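User: I want to check something. If I give you two sequences, will you return the structure for each one separately, not as a complex?

Assistant: Yes, each is folded on its own. Here is the first sequence with its structure:
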Amino acid sequence: MTAPLLPTTPSGGERVLCAMSGGVDSSVTAALLKDAGYSVVGAMMRFWPDDKRTDTFDSCCSPDAAYEARRVAEQVGIPFYLLDYREQFQRHIVGPFIEEYAQGRTPNPCVNCNTKVKFDELVKKAKMLGCRYVATGHYVKRVDTADGGVEFWRGDDPQKDQTYFLWGTPRDALPYILFPVGELEKPRVREIAEERGLLTARKPESQNICFVPGKVQDFVAEHLPQATGFIREISNGEVVGDHLGTQFYTLGQKRGMGLYQSHRVRHIVHLDPKTNTVWVGDYDDCLWGGLKVSGANYLCDLADLPRVVDVQVRYRTKPVRATVLHADEHGFELQFDDPQFAVAPGQSAVLYDGPRLLGGGLINDHKRDLPEVSDSPATLVNV
C-alpha cells in the first residue's frame, strides 16, 4: 500500500476543481496541481450574505479572501470562479448551529461544512463542470490501495491534521478528492508559497468560526431568547445558582456560572433544555465511560470495522482506545478503556485504525439518573 501525493495523471492531464479559500494552503494546492500536470480550475464558495455583518467572514471565505484567491489563480495561471453557496450554507450550517445550541448540544459547524457543502455539493458541481477531481488544502493524506480503493489517512503534520473534520465525507466521493499538501508540514507549505511568490505566503491562519463575530455566546444570544432557570447540584437537586438559558453553557465548564458560592469548584455535567436546568457536580460526575452516536458515516465496510478502535472526541485532543459494543448504519456505541471527561453531545466521535480514518458520528447525550426536584422558588438555597 502506498500513499502518493497525487494519483498518476494521464498525458493530457485530468481536469481538477481546486477549492480556494484565499489562504496559503489552498494557494499551494493549486500550484502543486498545476505543476503535476493537471488541468486546474480554481473556485471559491461564496458563503457570506449581501448584508454581511462586520467581523464575520473576514478571516476566510470573505470578499477580501475571494479577491486574494483570484489573484493567486492569476499567479498560478488557472481560471477562477466564485460559486454561490449562500443558501446551502444557511440551511446546512448556520441554521443547525443555532438549533443545536437550543437543544443543549455543542455543535461543530466545520464538520457540517465539509460534509454537506464542500464534499457533497462541491463534488457534484465539479462533475457538472467536467472535472474528475476536487482538491482542497486540507492536511489529510489520500491513500490509494492495491485493490483500487481510496482511504483517508492523517496528514503528516501532526499539528495540522484535519481528518477529524472529514468523517462525514460520502464514501462514494473518496476517489474524486485530492489533498496535495497532505504529506507536507505547514512550514514547507509556506516555503513553497514564498518560492512561488504567492501573495498569500505569509497570510495568518483563520481560527474562529467564520460566520460568528466575537464570542459564540453573544452570537447565540442574538438568535435564542434568554430564559431564567436553575443551576442544580446533580447529587441532591439543590439549587446553587441561576442562569439565563442552557444554550450559553457546555459540558465540563467550570467558570462563568455565577454560583451562589463562587469559591466552590463545580463542573457542568448535564444540560436539560426541556426544564431549562443546568446540572453541576464534581469532576468525577463529568466522566463518561462510553458514548453513543447517531448519524454515523463509515469510510470502510461496516463488516471490516475493528472491534477495538482509536476514537477522538474533540479536535486537538489525542485519540483514546475504545471497544465497539455495537455498530450499524445509523450509529454506534463505544466503551472507553479509560473514562473521558466532558464528552459533549453534538460534537463528533471520530474513529481511526492507526492513521486511517474509519468514519464517525455525532455524540448523543447519555441518560442520567437525576434527583427528583420541585420547580418552586422555595428550593433556592445558598450552599
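And separately, the second sequence with its own structure:
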Amino acid sequence: MSTRTGTRGEPVTPANPAVDTVDIAALLERGRDMSAPVLRAAVDRLAPPMDTVAAYHFGWIDAQGRPADGDGGKAVRPALALLSAEAAGAAPEVGIPGAVAVELVHNFSLLHDDLMDGDEQRRHRDTVWKVHGPAQAILVGDALFALANELLLEIGTVEAGRATRRLTTATRKLIDGQAQDISFEHRDRVTVEECLEMEGNKTGALLACAVSIGAVLGGADERTADTLEAYGYHLGLAFQAVDDLLGIWGDPDATGKQTWSDLRQRKKSLPVVAALAAGGPASEKLGELLAADAGSNDVDTFSEEEFATRAALIEEAGGREWTSQEARRQHAVAIEALHGVDMPEKVRAELTALADFVVVRKR
C-alpha cells in the first residue's frame, strides 16, 4: 500500500477509500448515545452527594446543580467497545455494558489523576476536587470503579466473567502507569523505554480493554480478543503520544487545559524524554533547566516566557518531531494488528478511521 506525503515531507495515513467514507462524528456519537442511558442509571445508584458530584464530573449538571450540557469527552472508548462487539459478529448493543464499564473506569482515573496532578481544569470547567473537594473526588472515583465491575458481573454469564477479568487487569495496569508517571516527576532522567512502558500502562491498557471487551461479551475466543487488544494497546500509545504533544503545544481553547500544562506539572512525557535523550546543546541546556526545576518550589510562579523557553528547547532537541513520528509508528502497528482478525470490512474501516482520528485530533 502506498503512503502519501504531507506538506512537510511527513508520512500521513495511507489512502483508503473505505476509511475516507467513515463518519467519525457519527461513530463517536453512536457510542455516546447508546451508552449514556446505562451510564446515567449506574451513576444514579450512588448515594448522595456522590451521585451529584459524579453528574457534575460527567457534565450533566453545573456546579450549582442545574442541568447542563457539558463536554463529556471524546467517547472514543465507548465507540471502540461497540465496534468490538461487531468485530466478533455480535450486535453493537452487546457491547454496551462493556462500553459503560470502561467509561466508568476511565473517569475513575480522571477524578483521581486531576487531584494528584493538581489540575484545576478539565473539559473547560473546574475539576471535581476544585468544586467539591478532594475527599469527594477520591470517593466518587472509587465508587465509579466499583460500579464498573458490578455492572459486568450482573450479566451473570461466562463471557461477563471473562470481560471483568480483562477490565480488572487493565485497571491494575492503569494504576501502575499513574504510579510510574508520578515517580518520574521526581527523577532527573527517564529513558524513552521507561516512558513508553508507563504510557502503555496508563493509556494503552484501557484502550486495549475497550476494543476487546465487546468482542468477549459477544462470545469471541481468546485469540480474537487478544488480537483486538493489540490494536487497542498500540492505538493507546499513539493516543498518548498525541496527548503529550497537546500537553505542551496544545491550544488551551481546544484542550480545556492551561498553556504548557505538562511542563507546569514537571511531567516526563515523551517529547521531554526524547529531547533529553537526543544529546546536543539544546538537550543539555534543557537537562540543566529541568534539574534545577526539580529542586525548586518556584515552578508555580514561572512566567509564560520561562515555560516557552523549555518548550522551545524540547523542540530544538527534536523531542516534538520524535513524538510525532512515534504516534504515526504506533498507529501503523495498530492498523497492522487488525489484519489478524476476520471481521466485516465495514467494521475494519471504522476501526481504521478511529485510529486515524486519534493521531490527527487537536484536543
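Because they were folded independently, the notes below concern the second chain alone. The two ends are 29 Å apart (CA to CA). The longest strand covers residues 121-122.
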